């Protein structure tokens, strides 16, 4: 089962997780990390790292963030490069998470990324999709 780490500003993450659990009951391998104004990115990184290890069963983890480019998204992006099968999705909404909840058990992290971006419309994107728009710099010659 894919782990979910919901991360966002103020009460965003906890409110999302609470709404999912009210409707569907306790969610295994699912954590919320709230990013408060004034919280250092170092502390945010520690909180997200704890959540990552708490939610990872070896099948992969998906970071679900509120805003592309904001501190939670950037921190998740850095963490995803160090862990296999780790995806970063931004712009998630509660109805979309309701619809995608069942896919945690059947899809790989990569397939989940494709499905959620496809179903989410224009407001949803992933780190992978953003990187395809701006591929990393490649040095063509050795000096």
From TrEMBL:
GO biological process terms on file: phosphoenolpyruvate-dependent sugar phosphotransferase system
PROSITE patterns cross-referenced by the UniProt entry: PTS_EIIA_TYPE_4
UniProt entry keywords in alphabetical sequence: Cytoplasm, Kinase, Phosphotransferase system, Sugar transport, Transferase, Transport
Predominant localisation class: cytoplasm
Occurrences of domain PTS EIIA type-4 (ranges): 1-124
Pfam families: EIIA-man
GO molecular function: kinase activity
CDD domains membership: PTS_IIA_man
Taxonomy, superkingdom: Bacteria
InterPro entries according to UniProt: Bacterial_PTS_sugar_comp, PTS_EIIA_man-typ, PTS_EIIA_man-typ_sf, PTS_IIA_man
Compartment(s): Cytoplasm
Gene Ontology annotations for the cellular component aspect, listed alphabetically: cytoplasm; membrane
Protein name: PTS sugar transporter subunit IIA
UniProt organism field: Buttiauxella warmboldiae
